[in-house]
Amino acid sequence: MRDPRMQKLAENLVGYSINVQPGENVLIDMIGSERELAKCLVEEVAKRGGRPFVETSDRSVLRTMLMNATEEQIKLWASFDLKRMESMQGYIAIRSGDNINSLADVPSDKMSLYDKHYRHPIHSEQRVKHTKWVVLRYPNSSMAQLANMSTEAFEDFYFDVCNLDYAKMDRAMDPLEALMKKTNRVRIVAPGTDLTFSIKGIGASKCAGERNIPDGEVFSCPARESVQGTIAYNSPSVYSGVTFENIRFTFKDGKIVEASSNNTEKLNEILDMDEGARYIGEFSLGFNPYILHPMKDILFDEKIAGSLHFTPGQAYEETDNGNRSAVHWDLVLIQRPEYGGGEVYFDDVLIRKDGLFVLPELEGLNPENLK
């Protein structure tokens, strides 16, 4: 018998997040060994008259492929999968697996080829820009370990987060989205951080369960050369299977001119992947009331209540500053008191302090009003 929470999640993903219509092709991309949610999604897409297609893969197999891949092979592989993606109107990714570090020892030159010739054209350019898409994790024991929870407790947490009333959250986001659209200068202050930039004319976009599950953010993007100052992120982050901690960037005229972390050499290799990787492609405020602590999973961590992320690399079309890169790396700074606190100012007006919105019109996004 199917877990009713799983069925509800599948209904929300198919009916709300990507709103499948009759005749639409939907690719269900399952990474890992779990199958129950994939089955539920196939059934829900079919119920709505869509046509489900399923891809299953394994990170350990991908590691072996990349270790032995040539540039010509990756380009040919990408050409097959790009043609398939071009045939899809919808995309649902379920990311699972037993080890988030499966790709940690793939050489940088191989990962660079994969990012440039496979991930960027298929996902950043085609899937993100031309399909209705949503990406989520699966609540397995590996994720529970990352969250320092039992598997059973993590499942309860997961379904609270993922089956949140996102329609209610969507309405509460409207004042913040409107404020960001008319804001010029942003200042971010926290321990080790004093950063300024402009978002004038860039726009803003709210995220309430239509792209990521879990969700809970409103994003914009700095004008490309406007970023000045330093940011010290306080959440660990995994990129291509490598865990980075204590990342610190210094900016001059928009460009990252100094970068350090627990693995400074590897960090700079990523930032040197292309010219756009040292510029910022996204600025976002996160406020999912159930997500409080980092677990080295960006789909959760970027939505942490009282957080923001400031993202090197590719900009989104909705809030485009013109930056282009094979990198899009959401790095998180939490500003709640237990993480050192901090302030966010829009045009010299304090809008959030220690992770809580202080303007009356934004208080609907504070945790007690979203649960």
Automatic annotation (TrEMBL):
Cofactor(s), by name: Co(2+); Mg(2+); Zn(2+)
Keyword NAD among record annotations: no
Annotated SUPFAM superfamilies: Thermophilic metalloprotease-like
GO BP field: proteolysis
Single GO MF descriptor: metallopeptidase activity
UniProt xrefs under PANTHER family: AMINOPEPTIDASE (PTHR34448), BLL6088 PROTEIN (PTHR34448:SF1)
Protein name listed in UniProt: Aminopeptidase
Protein source organism: Paenibacillus sacheonensis
